[in-house]
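This entry is retained here.
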Amino acid sequence: MFFKNKILEQPVYFIAEIGINHNGDLNNVFELIKASKLAGCDAVKFQKRSPRDCVPKNQWNIKKKTPWGVMSYIQYKEKMEFSKKDYLKIIDLCSKLDIDWSASCWDLKSIDFMQELNIPYYKVASASITDLKLLSKIKKTKKPVIISTGMSTLSQIKKAVNILGENKLGILHCNSSYPAKYEELNLSFIPKLKKIFPKAIIGYSGHEKGLSTTVAAAVLGAKIIERHITLDKSMWGTDQLASIEPLGYARVIRDIRLIESSMGDGKKVVYKSEHEVMKKLRIF
């Protein structure tokens, strides 16, 4: 099965969350995909919305300053979406670069849209974990699913897992603040999630500014790491500040891979490299 096999091939599966950091520019998407691949990521992730279905009507006419001038919020949200033709170009590039892709769907129509593109697996954003109709429709696709758990209670997480099932499920511990405060990351909950949902794959979706806490999440047992990626933190957009630039993402992956190689099997062993040192230093 695609998802399980991908995770089991290597201890940590890295997802670069492109999200809306492309600012509606397909060329930015292509550069972000290339940067994610160069950094060592296994997958890129997008967000798909039908704005008039998932944006509350009381927000539609709010004026918003954008790189394209002042416009209504609904116009802005629509400008940030890509067509099926655009996604086919995105998928083609991912295929050529041998990097996986996925998307979080924020409404029912977006699930239909992604089904037509044969999405490999679905992502459920923290904001959507309580949308039981959305979860039920995703479950019917029989595709693997990853859910984020920011701003959710354990009871809400359990209700979502009850609908989706654990066998094809990834559960990401998360704090949904942008950027998240270090004292509110609560990384100690990662091992607890592993005990509560032993059949699921537990991971971490981080929105903090730094990198060390993401490495710590892997040490605590996260098998999936998701971080937002940006071409430049100074770019326009609400998510850029909580994102990692490509070189930073490469450092996270390097550090986690080094830690993975250093963990061993938990058995105490005197290694061959220690024998010569032992001869020099041991008297008894």
